[in-house]
């Protein structure tokens, strides 16, 4: 899945400033840290959309497992860079959905990374996948303005 670089398609953002502990001995953000930025952005997205149950993740008897996570590194980020993570749900299936992300340096407007991932709705006890709740479809479809042809069965 090739993520889009068209920022106009993204309605949700999360801002982060690179911390000292996130850079490596080359003085650039360590490659694994970008996945943390993606995760923080996904959690903020879910919280802002009202998709997280009261009390926290997985407290309603369901969970979302990351099934796929990928990234393309385009430029480097360094200590104290101001970054903006653009996040969107790019598709919805019956039991899973996909996220796309763009990370932009706020000061120079350069896209430094892009990525995507797939999450599966799961019963955390049985480890079996579950259909996504109607509330999820409704909230995400309304927010993202997803066209019906992007929602797959």
Task: Explain what the structure shows.
The chain has 153 residues and is an alpha+beta fold. It has one domain (7-146): Hotdog Thioesterase (Thiol Ester Dehydrase, Chain A). Helices cover 18% and strands 33% of the residues. The protein contains 2 helices and 5 strands; from the N terminus they run βαββββα. A 5-stranded antiparallel sheet has the order 1-3-4-5-2. Strand 3 and strand 4 (96-105) form a beta hairpin. The radius of gyration is 16 Å and the shape is globular. The model has no long low-confidence stretch (mean pLDDT 88).
Instruction: State the CATH topology.
Output: Thiol Ester Dehydrase, Chain A
Largest sheet: 5 strands, antiparallel
CATH class: Alpha Beta
Number of distinct helices: 2
CATH superfamily: Hotdog Thioesterase
Beta-strand portion reads 25-35%
Instruction: Strand order, main sheet: write it out.
Output: 1-3-4-5-2
CA-atom Rg in angstroms = 16 Å
Unreliable parts = none
- What's the total number of strands? 5
What is the average per-residue confidence, as pLDDT, rounded to a whole number? 88
CATH architecture: Roll
> How does the helix and strand content classify structurally?
alpha+beta
Give the end-to-end Cα distance, rounded to a whole number of Å.
18 Å
- Estimated helix fraction: 10-25%
